[in-house]
Amino acid sequence: MSDNSRRKFIKQLGSTAALIGAGSLSGLAADPAKQYIIQPTKHNVSPNDKIRIAGIGMGIMGFGDVSTALKVPGVELVAVADLYDGHLEKAKTVYGNHIFTTRDYREVLERKDVDAVIIATPDHWHDTQAIAAMEKGKAVYCEKPMVQQIEEGHKVIAAQKRTKMVLQVGSQRVSSIALAEARKRYLAGDIGQLNMVEAKMDRHSALGAWQYSIPPDASPKTIDFDTFLKDTAKLPFDPVRFFRWRNYKAYGTGVPGDLFVHLITGLHFMTGSKGPERIFASGNLVQWKDGRDVPDVMVAVFDYPATKEHPAFQMTLRVNFADGSGGGEYTRLIGTEGVLEMGWNDFKLKQHKVPKAPGYGGWDTYNTFTKAQQEEYVKQYNAKYSAADQAEHKPEESVYKAPAGYDDRYDHFVNFFESIRNGKPVVEDATFGLRAAGPALAVNESYFKKKVINWDPENMRII
What we know:
The chain is about 35% helix and about 25% strand.
């Protein structure tokens, strides 16, 4: 899309943001930045059209997802499945003794009163449970990454097409009103031509590095560890692997599948990209040497080719779980005329255009000219460039925020349930899910094999 076309496009898009005043913006220029509150979309949801859900996997994400889903009018929880008895007991405490609980997710899928399932199990179970649920006529909300292995993603896509069931991947950022507004600003050409994306998600705590708490009653009696292992290597009971499964490549997807996938998902939503063509990763296990076999420091570089949707650009993603500065995160889309810096449900826009005239003096060969040559140079310069061409463009800064209390995960579930009720397309179906997960999983391939990965973004396969 040309710059001129982008500027015309923004007039058609309009804006959902309301200007609320000015204030300082730390880290940018001293001048005040305009601040906007982005207005959420009003959802007209009928509570009379009941949707009955079940949770499969009731860990951190399972409880979070189910609790958020139940805030949507007309949604009821009827069953949960988990391999740890304590999670089942907790579910009854939180949601009521009336709910059905089981260790076997297949019993949930056999229930006629379950319309949709929320899958929040370890990554190596996602494809099996999602496909089984769709084949049983259940709509599926599957946590990110959609799959643990790339080939599994193609099987999930095929199952969704075959069964015609709704499947939404749970990377809720794509439903954020802040991301939608940032997409408008990007498509309008507010940062010029995109040329680089850089993002980081750094942490400096044990919990941030996935050293989650283990309940005192964890034992072979309270946990079905053999089922947890699925088709991975058979091992003696180990509660550390069960509760901290993200630390092991047999069950999880490490930093790329847990964190990079969020960043890739948001980028693809904003730019319309189908993915990169080359991927390279490097990293190390620095601090959390607790038995894990995935790195706690990782950097990945992605080369995105020029397409009809976007120009060629490079993306660098970084995660550091041993960040002595205290951690922090951002995603920056850097263009020739500005930068979009994404938070979670907010972003900053800084526009800074380069004058058409190159200028002279300062750190420049102009100062080495003789006086006569300097005078002649200035004469030629002023003849070539008008005053407007020579004018410095003052940086302009704006801050966009969702209202206090806004929850993008709620909006993501609203989209999911609307699709079940009236056939509205989900924002993140199985194909979108693999386009985001595939490059993230290819990062692991690059890291462990120590080589550049060539990726086919159209067919979503390693070349």
